[in-house]
Task: inverse folding
């Protein structure tokens, strides 16, 4: 099949979409004449709308899906997708909603991850298991490709430059800092409050680094909901901080990270963008498991404390000493890591470990045969 039409479902979140992009890159490299579409949350669509490897973006509006008033509109969208007659449908979200959408799209072959949370595996022709609990999300997503005959390697650019966003960033950079300034990016926010390194620790780190290095500037990243955090952190060194919370598009955020020397971050979306760019990441982990969803290629460098409760995988802290897992990562620990990166001047390159694990297959592609019962197509039976 030289010109397949392919539909990828990975609507959210920001970090998950970034971690799934290697699948797109390899599909395009191996099948340059293919047409590839991506189903994505409307709030994240700007990340992919100008992507050079995509034929089109299909927006998913979460709020409209929840309202019966819009179900007719949703069905019209499903019918439009069915008319595309996709050869491959690849569900990298693999929850009930995306699984149902993948099935309703009625492609010739549907591939999905074996995620037990919502039982979506019944919608797929090929089910891709997570080889073990600690398999990184990037590696799990890549396991969807060998059954399709698509080889996995690392000869691609994970996040290609966006020329328009890069020009905007360069213009702003020239306005606010002298030539030769060294930028350190900071990400003080996170969706879960118990994933946030204390703001006082961030502020102490900024003050110390500002005192040590006259050429260092700080750019503070985050969404609209992080504005209060950004303003408070910028107050630690007002003349050296550029507070960008709530002021950047997703492509602009990526281009700011591209000019930064490193990122100090909680476990959140921009962390994955920095890792994809090969930037050193000082990642601060508490309740979550970095081996599964840490900065790819840099998981061994994650900063965390070995408390009995870590990782709890909860969105609120129940430990007797609240937030001790992050409180105990002191500014001195972070400063030591930052100084090491600033002194070495190294950039990282993720190490692709794919190929060390068994590959799934239905017998329709290369690899050991593991037959999966064919699910009925939408409209069959």
Result:
């Amino acid at each position: 099949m030289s010109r397949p039409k392919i539909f990828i479902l990975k609507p959210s979140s920001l970090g998950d979409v970034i971690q799934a992009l290697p699948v797109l890159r390899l599909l395009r490299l191996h099948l340059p004449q293919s047409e590839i579409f991506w189903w994505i949350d409307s709030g994240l669509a700007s990340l992919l709308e100008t992507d050079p490897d995509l034929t089109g973006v299909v927006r998913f509006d979460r709020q409209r899906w929840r309202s019966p008033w819009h179900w007719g509109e949703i069905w019209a969208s499903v019918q439009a997708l069915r008319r595309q007659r996709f050869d491959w449908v690849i569900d990298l979200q693999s929850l009930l909603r995306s699984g149902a959408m993948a099935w309703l799209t009625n492609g010739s072959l549907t591939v999905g991850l074996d995620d037990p949370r919502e039982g979506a595996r019944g919608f797929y022709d090929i089910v891709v298991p997570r080889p073990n609990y600690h398999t990184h999300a990037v590696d799990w997503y890549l396991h969807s490709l060998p059954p399709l005959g698509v080889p996995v390697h690392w000869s691609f650019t994970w996040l290609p430059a966006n020329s328009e966003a890069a020009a905007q960033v360069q213009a702003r950079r020239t306005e606010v800092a002298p030539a030769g300034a060294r930028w350190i990016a900071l990400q003080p926010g996170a969706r879960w409050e118990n994933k946030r390194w204390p703001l006082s620790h961030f502020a102490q780190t900024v003050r110390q680094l500002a005192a040590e290095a006259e050429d260092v500037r700080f750019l503070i990243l985050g969404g609209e909901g992080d504005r209060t955090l950004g303003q408070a952190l910028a107050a630690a060194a007002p003349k050296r901080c550029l507070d960008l919370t709530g002021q950047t598009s997703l492509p602009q955020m990526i281009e700011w990270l591209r000019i930064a020397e490193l990122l100090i971050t909680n476990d959140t979306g921009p962390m994955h963008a920095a890792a994809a760019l090969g930037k050193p990441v000082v990642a601060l982990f508490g309740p979550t498991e970095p081996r599964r969803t840490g900065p790819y290629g840099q998981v061994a460098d994650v900063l965390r404390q070995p408390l009995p409760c870590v990782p709890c995988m909860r969105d609120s802290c129940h430990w007797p000493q609240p937030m001790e897992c992050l409180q105990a990562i002191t500014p001195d620990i972070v400063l030591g890591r930052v100084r090491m990166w600033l002194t070495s001047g190294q950039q990282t390159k993720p190490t692709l470990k794919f190929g060390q694990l068994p590959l799934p297959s239905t017998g329709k592609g290369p690899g050991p045969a593991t037959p999966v019962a064919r699910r009925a197509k939408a409209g069959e039976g």
In short: Confidence is low (pLDDT under 50) at residues 355-374. The two ends are 28 Å apart (CA to CA). The CA atoms of residues 188 and 265 lie 6 Å apart. The chain has 13 helices and eleven strands.
